[in-house]
From TrEMBL:
Residues 3-129 form the Gfo/Idh/MocA-like oxidoreductase N-terminal domain. This is Oxidoreductase family, NAD-binding Rossmann fold. It comes from Grimontia hollisae. It holds the Pfam family GFO_IDH_MocA. The lineage of its organism: Bacteria, Pseudomonadati, Pseudomonadota, Gammaproteobacteria, Vibrionales. Signal peptide: none annotated. InterPro entries: Gfo/Idh/MocA-like_OxRdtase_N (IPR000683), Gfo/Idh/MocA_Oxidoreductases (IPR051450), NAD(P)-bd_dom_sf (IPR036291).
Length: 322
């Protein structure tokens, strides 16, 4: 029986649990959360899916395990505690965790990126970051239509889509489409007004930011309208792709012919089982490798941290987004 650890049993962690239970492998799953009510919700959700293996077992705990071996660990805590949880896990279970899947935003403090990367190497653990659009069938098929010998211009526009906490998803998608991760910030035009998140102590932003990888560009925009909308446009030579993630459509135009397809996102409960199975079988995964994701996270974290510090008129050493 293979062992899985899920740290954080909240909204996302409980969906990871559902996804894990769909896997065909026999799994011994340890779910950890300091809040007993979160564990109760996770247990309820575990009963809402059809288990892929009837021999799988779940153990719930309010404390991190000590001196246990795990094939895969999923750290689905909030961003502000994720680095500390990772350190505690790896130090108390030294060299006994093979793979760790991290949620994004990875960490709020810039220095944590290099610290955790060094710790993973020291403990011989492989890290992966859960930015799953690169696994979505629509974006995988779209990539086959791209000519990387020509510039790729990607634009993300919308309203009320969570620019601070979700931009990393599109930065990662951009990196996946161009097959590179050497990201540069070339323009920052955030709005001066910031938005207090529904989660106390966190903030959201609107405005515009632009990145480049080589001669490829990514522009991310968020307006102030409260009605949610989200569209991804990709221009590559004479070919245009327009994905409306709210309406679920993908429009393909090559200059002569225009066709419309369905855009179908995958839920976390549909993804985790496949990720775990892939890691157990091949020690590889379609998710973003940790070091690569760090290079995509840090330019964004730095500019948002600077913007929030300036706007709030306070020196922040941690970026209050999650």
């Amino acid at each position: 029986m293979r062992k899985l650890l899920i740290v954080g049993a909240g909204q996302l962690g409980s969906r990871h649990l559902q996804g894990a239970l769909v896997a065909q492998e026999s799994l011994y799953i340890v779910v950890v959360d300091p809040a007993q009510e979160s564990l109760i919700i996770a247990d309820e959700r575990s009963k809402q899916v059809k288990w892929g293996n009837k021999n799988s077992r779940i153990r719930y705990s309010t404390k991190l395990p000590e001196s246990e071996n795990f094939d895969v660990c999923i750290i689905a805590t909030a961003a502000q505690v994720r680095a500390d949880v990772t350190k505690a896990l790896l130090i108390t279970n030294n060299n006994s965790v093979k793979h760790i899947i991290f949620e994004k935003v990875l960490f709020q403090k810039v220095e944590h990126y290099s610290e955790i990367q060094a710790l993973l190497q020291e403990c011989k653990a492989q890290g992966w970051v859960n930015c799953p659009r690169r696994i979505f069938p629509t974006y995988q098929e779209l990539k086959h239509h791209l000519d990387t010998s020509q510039p790729i211009r990607m634009t993300v526009t919308g309203n009320a889509w969570g620019m601070a906490c979700n931009s990393v998803h599109f930065i990662d998608l951009f990196s996946y489409l161009v097959d590179r991760a050497d990201l540069d910030v070339i323009k920052v035009a955030f709005d001066s007004e910031i938005i207090e998140s529904k989660r106390i102590g966190f903030y959201e932003i609107t405005g515009e930011i632009e990145f480049a990888i080589g001669n490829n560009t990514l522009r991310i925009e968020s307006g102030k309208t409260l009605i949610p909308s989200l569209q991804v446009t990709i221009e590559n030579g004479h070919i245009h792709h327009i994905i409306n993630e709210v309406q679920g459509t993908w429009l393909y135009n090559n200059g002569a012919v225009s066709t419309q397809h369905s855009y179908t996102p995958l839920f976390q409960s549909q993804l985790t089982g496949a990720n775990i199975s892939e890691l157990l079988v091949s020690n590889q995964c379609q998710l973003t490798p940790f070091a690569e994701s760090c290079s995509l996270h840090t330019p964004f974290i730095k500019v948002v941290l600077e913007h929030l510090s300036k706007t709030l008129n306070v020196h922040l050493n941690a970026c209050p987004i999650t």
